Write a sequence for this structure.
């Protein structure tokens, strides 16, 4: 069965923790962490979810010149999330740069 992702569209970690109580018995949990909560909580939200053994889809929709996206993907790869998003309109060069660098940073950890 393919995973179902639950969107964590909240303002802060306190709200996320309260919401997550509803899923305390759920196995193979997958969540989407969007811009709002990530920009608010940063690595704290990622670490909280990883400590609960939850799969993370970090939905930041990277989009910029290939070099910038490549460097951003490298840093996001260090977070060891399962998925990140790259905006398709950035083109294949940007997408390939993000793919290459996110894998590089994950392999180094």
């Amino acid at each position: 069965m393919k995973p179902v992702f639950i969107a964590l569209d909240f303002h802060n970690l306190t709200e996320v923790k309260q919401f997550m109580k509803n899923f305390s018995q759920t196995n193979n949990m997958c969540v989407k962490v969007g811009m709002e909560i990530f920009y608010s909580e940063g690595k704290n939200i990622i670490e909280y979810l990883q400590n609960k053994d939850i799969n993370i889809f970090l939905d930041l929709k990277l989009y910029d010149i290939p070099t910038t996206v490549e460097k951003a993907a490298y840093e996001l790869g260090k977070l060891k999330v399962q998925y990140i998003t790259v905006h398709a309109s950035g083109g294949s060069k940007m997408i390939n740069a993000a793919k290459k660098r996110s894998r590089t940073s994950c392999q180094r950890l």
Remarks:
- Strands lie at 5-7, 30-34, 55-62, 83-86.
- DSSP finds five helices and four strands in the chain.
